[in-house]
Amino acid sequence: MNQSPLRLIPAIAFLLASGLLSAATPAARPNIVFIMADDLGWGDVGFHGGNAPTPNLDRLAREGLELAAHYVAPVCSPTRTGLMTGRCWSRFGVTNPQNDRALPWDTLTLPRALQTVGYDTALVGKWHLGSKPEQGPNRFGFDHAYGSLAGGVSPYSHKYKKGPYSETWHRNGRLISEEGHVTELLTREAVSWIETRGDRPFMLYVPYTAVHLPVREPEEWVARVPAGITGEVARHYAASIMHLDDGVGRILAALERTGRRANTLVVVTSDNGGSTAQNNDTSYPDDQCPSGTLPGRNLPWRGKKGDLHEGGIRVPTVVSWPAGMRPGRVEAPVQIIDWLPTFAALAGYQPAADPRWDGTDLSALLTRHVAPPARPLYSVAPGWRARSLRFGNWKLIVTGDGAKAAHELYDLIADPAEKRNLADEQPARLRDLLGTLAQVAARDRDAMAKD
What we know:
Elements: H1 5-18, E1 31-37, H2 55-63, E2 65-67, E3 70-71, H3 76-85, H4 110-115, E4 120-126, E5 144-148, E6 169-171, E7 174-175, H5 182-195, E8 202-207, H6 219-222, H7 232-257, E9 264-270, H8 310-313, E10 318-320, E11 328-330, E12 334-335, H9 339-347, H10 363-368, E13 377-380, E14 386-391, E15 394-399, E16 406-411, H11 427-441
Parallel strand pairs: 1-8, 1-9, 2-11, 3-12, 4-5, 4-8
Antiparallel strand pairs: 2-10, 5-6, 6-7, 9-10, 13-14, 14-15, 15-16
């Protein structure tokens, strides 16, 4: 497939656009590069008015497809669980960032599904679904894995929080020590892996640790930050965004150099909304990071990382597949759990048994901008403290349980900033959505990992 992809581009693009060729036809199977930023807020990117330049992301948004209502979990491990399984994270009992193994050993994961139809698979970046070496990505379908077994790491020492998982930097499950800034190391590894691929299709998952705390960028990157951005943490944060954007550009350039860009489906998204925590978190080993509040930007949405309001779970997302996808911008609500069914369909994978996916195939949305049928998008906050449901234009948030539960109901078309709670004014709609929420939540914890 990769020997002469350019010859196939015009025919594939025409047939896909006309509907004469299924996106799952083997000749059209794309390579897949899934890039996930860490804590990148809706308003942190240039194409949403961010103050740090992001030319590569802006170009992807301009020339590709922006998913303007792409939802994730409010925090990191749950989002990664949803991507890997096509199921809501709460099915696995995962609602917080966690170092314990998140998935049963035999889980049908995204890389496992693609391996069965001939894909090479790699993860370069943050795993955080089991922080022991024997619980890492290689045990769940990745041929190659590199980066942090645990969560976000300090930028130069590459250490996670103080404790049993602090030493976390690895290559294929073997803990290693390296010099260099974390964003640079991950980009270099991703580019190298692309450049050494053969003729087989591939799936490369690049979950960067940027812009997760603690941030401290090389001086050459801080020097490039616009002068109007002031304050030490704010300038390092902006530099981290710019460094991340550069990494995306270098990955795209590697695809171009190797003749794979046209038939590679690239997704760039974030694992949750932007953070306003203290940057120099003392639970991490000291890496001389500046102290102060992170300036994560989620406007115009309400809320931040950890919240079920839009600012915590609606993130910037762009998709690019020159040979097989129409550019533009779509408002249809989609969720992180949709990517496994979508990639499976595009790759021609058919599960032997019911995978119980909560997600849906977005192939028609990508290729023809045909939105999937309306369905409830369910989310669970850290510690099970709240649940939410988006169904059509309506958004329900339930905080707490039983008679003491608090209800919020918003019309996201009329009130996208979630300023007016309509729960008291719309009792019938509230009752209907609560019933739907109960039905969806009934499957929670039905696939929890057991030792």
